[in-house]
Amino acid sequence: MTVLSVNVNKIAVLRNSRGAHDPDVVTAARACLDAGAHGITVHPRPDARHIRTDDVFALAELTRSYGVEFNLEGNPFAPPRDGYPGFHALCAEARPAQATLVPDGDGQLTSDHGFDFVRERDALREQVSTLKALGCRVSLFADAGADLSAAAASGADRIELYTGPYAEAYASGSADTQLALFAETARAAAAHGMGVNAGHDLSQANLGRFLRDVPNVLEVSIGHALIGEALYAGLEATVKAYLAILDGR
Ligand SMILES: CC(=O)[C@@H](O)[C@H](O)COP(=O)(O)O
Ligand SMILES: NCC(=O)COP(=O)(O)O
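Above: query sequence and 1-deoxy-D-xylulose-5-phosphate SMILES. Below: predicted holo structure tokens.
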């Protein structure tokens, strides 16, 4: 079974654009959970462009009260700064069920690549073990085709496949080559004893094909497209539409 974790970063983008409280990320997350979503994801960035530290703690409490997974994403190597205590400090306080490590940088518009597992192997091993000691399942953002023996050597429980290149290929009508590469990487993860998550630019249009072709996907985290689609259909109907895709493939 593949579960749906809704990323509510974009609710915070709207809220921050007016500097006040609405739309409220906790209210939006609750609407997603009430519609049947299996969990909530956020990716607070050190520049606090959307999700803030106080949102992380509020969403940790909400997801705990619903008994569902809270997936916190971030770069464990980004130093703390004003308003951002660092990824490890956030995890130590919020205790997310899953910590997803992403090699993002300040200058990036959004996440656009996975880790170089060979180069980062020792540093990742240390981070994974510290986060596991906090009780978090640890997932590593990975490009399709990445060297997963090095990823497995870090001790991570899962990888999250960076699906941006698939979404782009799907939109241009030529997803077959990408899908074959993603499927091969998902099988390699299983062979190395790691579970597989997937996310980035997944949508109602491209999700079904991805899940039909790529085996063993345990979780998809979806934000940008889902929140955009919800502007027309509402959060409840949109979350239900994703759940139907997960059920119906
Ligand atoms: C890791 C990943 O693919 C998502 O967390 C994505 O990075 C969303 O982040 P933004 O909402 O800041 O684009
Ligand atoms: N991990 C991916 C995620 O949380 C959402 O990415 P997107 O759907 O906002 O591109």
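The CA atoms of residues 63 and 124 lie 27 Å apart.
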